[in-house]
Amino acid sequence: MATQRGFGRQEGSNTSPNSGKNYLLTIGIDNYLHWQRLSNAVKDAQEFADVLTRQYQFEAGDIFTLYNEQATEANIYQALRDMKRRLEPLDNLIVYYSGHGHYDDEFDEGYWIPVNAKPDDESNFISNANIVKRINALDTQHTLLIVDSCFSGSLVVQKRNAIPDERFKSRRILTSGRYETVSDGRDGENSPFSAGLLTYLRKNTSPKLDTTSVIKYVKDFVFTQAKQHPVDGRIQNSADEGGEFVFYLRRDEEAVWQEVCLADKVVEYRNYIAGFPAGKYVAAANRKINLLEEDEVWSSVKINDTELGYEGYISKYSPSGKYLTEARERLSKLRENRHERQKAQQEIAARESERAQLRLAFDELVKSAERLFGERKLEEARSKYREALQTHLPGFAPTQEYLEEQINLCQSNLAFLAHYENGKAALQQENYRLAIEYFQEALKINNNAKVEKLIAHCQQQMQNGQRKTSTRSGGAQTRSFAGTATPDAPKRRIGMWIGVGVTLCFLLFLLFAALVNEGIFDNTLPNYDDTSIYDDDYTDDPTPGSTPASPTTADLLMGTWQVSTINVVRNGVAYNATAEDQSLLLLIGAVYNFQSNGIVTLSTEFGSENIYYSLNGNNIYVQAPGYSTGTINKIDRQSLQLTLPFTNYFGTHMLQFNLVRY
């Protein structure tokens, strides 16, 4: 059965980690005077010293040992004092202890047990505090403390990640267990901890072996072999800088040089120089490094394929570089390509600048044309639309089709007005038949209700003229009939006919008054205001007695509206949006003028702008940044409410606009 290296505390849990180089102080105790004898502590310590001197760069004269009866409390303290006097700041030290450990629960303190210590007398124990104090007093580049004893984990007080770089100082610890007893191993073998450490050091073939790799292997090895948990850490309040000790293999220079030449890589030649700084092949290694570096540099330059890379290669290897000609040719080609790209970019920038200027001119022309069209200055509007069409480029809005439609609309309206004016002139001259012809031509262009009424008026006047002619002819016959003499008639008959004549004249007068009152003989032109020729009041046929058609959403939307309130709708509830976003106050009082040509003019205290919109039933789309298709919730002649989804950085919000007729 394997012996346990310690007494005084059962297995527990509490871990921390730590690290250390060049000299070795190894302590191993089997033959305790007053404690249970161990089987493998000295063997473990001796084999550790052997593997370092045989395989790694540790010289026999720099190895110091304390075994069995030599390992007293006084000798251990003296050995550490001697190391302090011997070590230089760039030296490295490994301290290896293999023996009993003890833990005092009452004072929370761990100890090394020297060979002559008594179990009931702590005066000869070496406390962790004294060990750490003396280790911290050693001025080295690296100090590595390796402890294979029970409760050795109490030495580990702080842990942080290592920097695998030996240029930084380190004070590191590796122990065989936490606050627990650890195995001594079978008699004549190694302890599980020592077996893992020695196995990895013996089988390593890498020229450089860092402490972190050793610690990782030992932990994994011991965990599978025994019920103990090695821990590592760094010594608290020490000169540790986070670096670590590196084990370098002790190898034959000739054999190493042959391996390096076979590998023929820059890193291998550099490793050779690092391992043998005064070696006889250092000059040859430097020459090979220069040659191989040029190949590696050239390969990297070709992969990156940049002007800077080729310029760097030419500068470094001129005038004798192997690839100078190719580098100069490729550099020239890259520069030529860069100049061509710059020229193309300048041309693109010039075109973009020209396009931007054209866009500004185009927008001004469209804005002016829309204003003139709204003012019914059709000749001028048509001219501006034509100019805008000539400057139109793909991507400009409004589209080319829209401009052409507006030009055609101006042209047709001009033709309509010409027929209308001719018809009105004929009407003033009471040439009703000619007026009707002009008005009918106007109706072919625009089905205008006012023109239809003017045609009806002309037709009525023509009928009145015919009635007047007929009436005048009938009256003459009556007067002739009434004035015919009847010489033989008695006087009382004359009186009778005079009475009848007076009665007939009175009836004719009443009839004439009634006809005048009916307007049959009215020759005056109806008082139609010419400026209202396009008014909406004349868009429908006002047939007497008919019920007017219900206005559509598009009909009701036309005209000017003013924003009264803006809400944000969440879960069906409307909240005052201006209370949440003060910038929305700028839209309160804004005026929107919806036009039938798909343009709505927005007017605020900062000026006016045109926005394009479209309708599909009660769905409305406004071409403005952040807005998408919305809904007209309700509309009549005096009020309008619509909801528009607005998307920004914070998400999509349902904005509800309430407007009143302006």
Report on this structure.
The protein has 17 helices and 21 strands. The chain has 662 residues and is an alpha+beta fold. It has 5 domains: 243 residues, Rossmann fold (3-Layer(aba) Sandwich), CATH 3.40.50.1460; 52 residues, no CATH class; 89 residues; 111 residues; 108 residues, Calycin beta-barrel core domain (Lipocalin, Beta Barrel). The strands form 4 sheets. Strands 13-15-16-17-18-19-20-21 form an 8-stranded antiparallel barrel. Strand 5 and strand 6 form a beta hairpin. The chain is elongated, with a radius of gyration of 56 Å. The two termini are 104 Å apart.
Question: How is the topology of this model organized?
Answer:
Blueprint: E1 6-7, E2 23-28, H1 41-55, E3 63-67, H2 73-86, E4 92-98, E5 101-104, E6 109-112, E7 126-127, H3 128-136, E8 142-148, E9 170-175, H4 192-203, E10 208-210, H5 211-225, E11 231-234, E12 246-248, H6 253-263, H7 266-275, H8 282-304, H9 307-317, H10 324-374, H11 378-391, H12 400-428, H13 432-445, H14 449-482, H15 491-518, H16 553-557, E13 559-570, E14 573-576, H17 577-580, E15 591-594, E16 599-604, E17 607-616, E18 619-622, E19 630-635, E20 639-648, E21 651-661
Parallel strand pairs: 1-5, 2-3, 2-4, 4-8, 8-9
Antiparallel strand pairs: 5-6, 6-7, 9-11, 10-12, 13-14, 13-15, 13-21, 15-16, 16-17, 17-18, 18-19, 19-20, 20-21
Helix pairs in contact: 1-4, 4-5, 7-8, 8-9, 9-10, 10-11, 11-12, 12-13, 13-14
